[in-house]
Amino acid sequence: MKTLEAFIDRLIPSDETGPGAVEAGAQNYIDRQLAGYLAAEKSAFVAGLDDLDAYSRRTRAAGFAELADALIPTK
To answer: Is the Cβ–Cβ distance between 19 and 26 less than 8 Å?
Structure first.
């Protein structure tokens, strides 16, 4: 859940116009959908988050959720 929250927070951060994805509860929505309607996709989704975290640990020596925004490559 930490990696998912970090990922969606970086996609849709909070700003002066309103809440970001985490504040809006997008992580809970995604979790509910993966437990229900999209259950068949859950293993692929979780594997993708695990791969993201592993890449982060391999290249930045920290899990994705622990990285400061400045350390996250944009390309």
So the answer is: no
